[in-house]
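Lab notes, practical 5.
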Amino acid sequence: MVRILCIALILAVSACDSPGMDYAGIPPVMVEIDGSRFAVRRKGGEAQAIRLNREYRAGTMARAFRAIETGSGCAIRPDTLRGDPAVAYARLTCPGA
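Output from the prediction step:
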């Protein structure tokens, strides 16, 4: 019974768009990259991408990278992309900043 409850909870949360506390209240920019859907939020020189669809394929972080750049309009600073296939964070270099 506990196993079924855990699986149900994971499935319920896996497609939610709940930003971290640092990004609460910031409306997301919805971005689709090669079939992966992301909610991208930018706060100053940083951004967060939350993957909205379930998927089990390689390359999710590369798609999150592209989603952050597309959704924020900024370039990701080298070696600052971090996180996991569900939620990724990066520091940005933005035009005019």
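Observations recorded by the TA: Strands lie at 29-33, 36-43, 46-51, 75-76, 82-83, 87-93. The chain is about 25% helix and 30% strand.
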